[in-house]
Amino acid sequence: MAATSAHRILSLVPSETESVARLVGLARLVGRTDYCVEPPGIEAVPSVGGTKRCEVERAIALRPDLVLANREENGPRDVEALERAGIPVHVSFPCSLAGSRAYLAELAALLGADASVAVAEHDAVLAAAPEPAWPDRAPRVAVVIWKEPWMSLDERTFASDLLAVAGAANAFDGRARRYPLAADLDRSAPARTTERDTRYPRFALAELIERAPDVVLLPDEPYAFGEDDAAALEATLRPDLPGVRVALTSGKDLFWYGVRAAGAVRRLRAQLAALAP
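The chain above was modelled as a monomer; its predicted structure follows.
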């Protein structure tokens, strides 16, 4: 854990970069990754490369007094190298809206900042009575995060919790990723899950049809789905799922915890409500 009131911050997580900028402004950010694209003006902050593998020597040369990392986004090799250089690293891993709220409180303490507005926004959403996004029920939603191979996410992920808070049910609830990878597509294959992140299953389109989602959401990250992808997938699914709706959505809203998350729940709920039959 890093000391409080850090003033030279290197963020290796896009959502955390956005949170820092909102809480204390861009001036205290000395570094970011190529994928840290929010807020406007962030391009003036030097980049240290990607999230999975950053340029460690360049990161050290920026002389940060706090590095922000995420257990899923950033490789342990980079984190360990930065710590060996004597740089404090805060590693987060929020998997729910409540976790996002807790993260904001921790970040505020590290920065000596006031996160009361962002925390209150989370509290308001979390305190609201659970209500289905559709008038008669909670729609079953499949979030597709990749194709070739097709991939989704299970109930242990941040995006799945946002779906639940927004009044939807994850169609891939309970479907952990299996190892070896072939087991995702062939259920008779043996599974090996020791020390693996099993939250992002691969699937065949036949399984998607079996899970009978009401809505399939195609975010613009990590895979940049577009209108052609949505039209093609809907045409493929409609013969078996005549009522299914396939829609593009914001990957930032689905996956970025921190200052964006409370508003993301409201936007996601509004999008689902607009897709109701």
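The first strand starts at residue 9 and ends at 11.
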